Amino acid sequence: MANVVVIGTQWGDEGKGKVVDLLTAHATRVVRFQGGNNAGHTLVVDGEKSIFHLIPSGILYPDKRCLIGNGVVVDPEVLLEEIKGLFERGIKVDPQRLGLSERAHLIMPYHKAIDIAREKAKGASKIGTTGRGIGPCYEDKVARVGIRAVDLTEPESLEEKIKANLREKNFCLTNLFECEPLAYEPIAERYRSLSHELSPFIVDVSIELDEAIRRKENVLFEGAQGTMLDVDHGTYPFVTSSNPVAANASIG
Predict the structure, then answer these.
(1) Model-level pTM?
(2) Is 105 designated active site?
């Protein structure tokens, strides 16, 4: 099997998970390259149903290496929930089996707050966001103020970035959306804990994939959502905030 990118050609729910499950047997690595936990893949293996929002579905195979690429926006809480949920089912998830790109951007509590407040303010004109902070996180990525996975390994720098971002986000929440501001300390304290839990998984996915491809390994890229939800090529503005098309696998 050559390197394969699995995408949907509609609005999602095309059955990508089944195709990914079929092809995983022939791959050494399975990679998520875009989106966040606003979509999921459902697999039924031996009668047991599994739903993955962030972790590539190849994790069900003990000999596969799974990677979350830099094009994914990651809610650390959701990622930990998935890891712990798999552990409870006897599925081993450790840094040898799962890698998180150091360049992946993190969804913060203020992203979710702004996502929900903005959608509420639109009233009848709302676009149907999931309220999970996906769009606002991508906004910060493009604005070059986002917090990335690698920042979890540098606590002092991380806290300064949280403070700076929170000043701006709270200004928007209170003055534009008339919502309560978010407190700094609970966020900082939680992310100190997340740093200890997630840092072992953080790797340079780009280098790892380059080396794997040079060794002629088979890599499976697992797309989420579908082409018609692509921010550039979909039914704009009723789209997602990323590019679920095949071309994005090369940069995500």
Answers:
(1) 0.94
(2) no
